[in-house]
Design a protein that fits this description.
Helix content: 55-70%
Distance between the termini: 49 Å
Number of strands: 8
Oligomer: single chain
């Protein structure tokens, strides 16, 4: 856990964040530091490990401290609204408005401004913060441990073939750069978001544990610790310092089936899972950027730089997390800038110069948003057909959006009630209407991806998420969480006001009563959520984690055979095998190179020859020529289950069949129905 929080906490403290503000933003900054330092390490000839991360942490802390000190030289002793600026505007307007009324309005304006620490940003921690986080962590830990079943179990899914081998690739080569991680799949060095893989590799290196155990531990920390910390930080920034905000945000973090449970099921999407877990902290920083005029320049520079670097860093954790954050942040920015531009109050009205600056900022935000939306996608717009088809009607998709569910699963009744109520309340409150706009965008995205067939429009809207409704459902769940927190805070305040008007309780007793009522409601929400669609989500995810005779990709017998490989196969020798039968994972287990490290390994002429004709090596000179060029010395076969039988990809390896009867292959090890052969026909 220290690796996932510590580096970011150090940088946050140097950047002027204090108390829970530093803790809440630390998962995001740590993820960015891990991903960014892994990219930089090869440039300075350092192998990936703790040392590059420590160096990056120290450098980042010094840089952000230097930014604060540089801004301090140009800072004013008080923000404009705290004194002279407002009074000078008041003096100019005094003849038109009247002295008494203006002084009264000015005093109200200054008093109503939230007190902001001049040089640091502090979010106090209360019992509600700790209690909410503990409840959330307990429920999430229970659910995720039941999904993972055992630390040694692995997700038997197609994407995990690459993920586990990529971790081994980083450990063996010392190169964790996202600019080269694509080579772990058998291609030339290419871009692949590697923040999660770098994090897991660090866990392996610092603990000495196996890769499957490190994956389980890292994913548990991401879901149980980083996700709730980030959610509470974002909620505190968006909705203010209130105990009900902390409690509701933390409890709601474990009440949606779409996140975190869906992303450890489908795919499996571990990099996306990591990025989404720290995404709320980026939303919180984005909300602070919208409030920069309230802060001293020293703190403004620190917040702005942290936000900009975090956006860039999250792109190499997973790019679509930046798009997900943008769908939340951009409506907030547009609302704030439009509000400043259209202000009519004499004391809120901007000068012509500041109005022009706000207009330019608004146009820049809109243009940049469109550019990022178009460019930050894995496939070009004209490849919209590389996608998953719709699975329901648009009306059903819209219903699932409001009922906070997906995939045709049962409704999330507890969360959907507060989501719908929150949208209604936000529409009536001017400062929260951006929540309705953002939610509407999410509704359009989810309905288009789940309910409409492939088209240019669908590709334009959803292409940044691979046109995958499950990734978009996870983003919609984050949005519903924020709206739910807004509903809880508003209803809590309403109940408190009504009881104060009609009751005779003392203020302290009234506060305690309302707090108890709020806690009871949250407990009911948590209990209902854990008995509706979350059990189905957890049970479905659990089926993917196994290591037994019927495991789809790698069985216990295969694992036992792979563990003997490094004592048989010399370093540098290549192993052939059909990746669909589990042989690709021989690499992450043994560290010995395999010819096909992924089910989507790019084809080359030599690989094609081996896949189709290896069993003809003793009779076909073309095969031996390819074998020698590849330094191919061994071959793995399995008569167990093959992953996704019927998939055309599984039929592309006829050369791996019948090696027990072919000439030129010597059996050197076997466990159950799994065998390792030495290729003697060509050597």
């Amino acid at each position: 856990m220290l690796l996932s929080v510590g580096p970011g906490l150090v940088v946050a403290l140097f950047g002027g964040f204090r108390s829970y503000a530093a803790v809440g933003v630390s998962p995001l900054l740590s993820a960015v530091l891990i991903a960014a330092s892994a990219v930089v390490a090869p440039w300075v000839r350092l192998r990936w490990g703790v040392v590059p991360l420590l160096v990056a942490t120290v450098c980042a802390a010094l840089v952000v401290w230097g930014i604060r000190m540089a801004c301090r030289k140009f800072d004013r002793p008080r923000a404009p609204w705290q004194g002279g600026g407002a009074r000078r505007r008041a003096d100019r307007l005094r003849p038109a408005v009247g002295a008494v009324r203006l002084e009264h309005a000015e005093r109200r304006r200054i008093v109503r401004r939230p007190p902001v620490t001049p040089t640091v940003f502090r979010l106090p921690t209360s019992w509600a913060t700790l209690a909410g986080l503990m409840v959330s962590a307990a429920i999430l830990c229970w659910r995720l441990t039941s999904i993972f079943r055992s630390p040694e179990y692995v997700s038997q899914t197609a994407d995990n073939v690459f993920h586990l081998n990529a971790v081994r690739f980083i450990i063996e080569t010392g190169n964790g750069s996202s600019l080269a991680l694509g080579a772990a799949g058998g291609s030339s060095p290419s871009l692949y978001p590697g923040g999660w893989h770098d994090f897991v590799a660090l866990v392996v290196q610092t603990t000495g544990t196996s890769i499957p155990v490190a994956v389980s531990a890292a994913n548990l920390v991401i879901g149980v610790v980083l996700w709730p910390l980030s959610v509470v930080f974002a909620a505190r920034v968006l909705f203010g310092h209130a105990r009900i905000v902390d409690l509701s945000a933390a409890v709601l973090a474990c009440c949606f089936s779409a996140f975190p449970y869906l992303l450890v099921d489908w795919g499996v999407l571990y990099p996306n899972y990591y990025g989404m877990a720290v995404l709320p902290a980026l939303v919180g920083l984005g909300a602070l950027v919208a409030r920069l005029p309230q802060f001293r320049l020293e703190l403004s520079g620190s917040i702005a730089s942290a936000f900009a670097v975090s956006c860039l860093g999250l792109m190499i954790v997973h790019p679509n997390t930046v798009l997900t954050a943008g769908v939340v942040i951009v409506p907030l920015w547009v609302a704030r800038l439009a509000g400043r531009i259209s202000a009519r109050s004499p004391l809120s009205r901007l000068s012509p110069r500041r109005r022009l600056v706000s207009v330019v900022a608004l146009v820049a935000v809109l243009i940049l948003s469109v550019v990022v939306w178009i460019e930050l996608r894995p496939f070009p717009l004209n490849r919209f057909d590389i996608t998953w088809p719709p699975y329901e009607t648009p009306a059903q998709a819209l219903g699932e959006f409001f009922l906070t569910t997906h995939s045709g699963w049962p409704a999330g009744y507890a969360t959907s009630v507060f989501f719908i109520v929150g949208l209604f309340l936000a529409a009536k409150r001017r400062g929260w209407r951006w929540l309705v706009v953002s939610s509407t965008i999410w509704a359009v995205l989810l309905v288009s991806v789940a309910g409409y067939p492939s088209s240019y429009l669908r590709g334009f809207l959803d292409g940044g998420w691979y046109t995958d409704f499950k990734r978009i459902a996870a983003g919609a769940a984050v949005m519903a969480l924020f709206v739910g927190v807004a509903a809880f805070k508003t209803l809590h305040s309403f109940v408190k006001i009504q009881l104060r008007r009609r009751g005779s309780l003392k203020p302290r007793a009234l506060t305690s009563l309302v707090s108890i009522l709020g806690i009871l409601v949250l407990l009911v929400v948590a209990c209902v959520a854990q008995t509706t669609n979350i059990p189905q989500a957890a049970a479905h995810a659990e089926t993917n984690y196994s290591l037994g005779p019927g495991s789809p990709i790698m069985s216990a017998d295969e694992l036992a055979l792979y563990k003997t490989i490094n004592s048989i196969v010399p370093s540098g020798a290549m192993i052939a095998g059909n990746p669909w039968d589990g042989s690709a994972w021989a690499y992450f287990v043994s560290g010995r190179q395999v010819l096909f490290p992924h089910v989507l390994t790019p084809w080359t002429p030599d690989r094609s020859v081996v896949a189709k004709m290896l069993n003809q090596a003793s009779d076909n000179p073309l095969v031996c020529s390819a074998v020698r060029r590849l330094n191919l010395r061994y071959a793995l076969t399995s008569d167990e289950l093959i992953y996704l039988p019927g998939n055309p990809g599984t039929l592309q390896f006829p050369g791996m069949a019948g090696l027990e009867l072919a000439k030129g292959f010597q059996l050197v090890a076997s466990v159950g129905e799994n065998r390792l052969y030495k290729i003697t026909a060509c050597w």
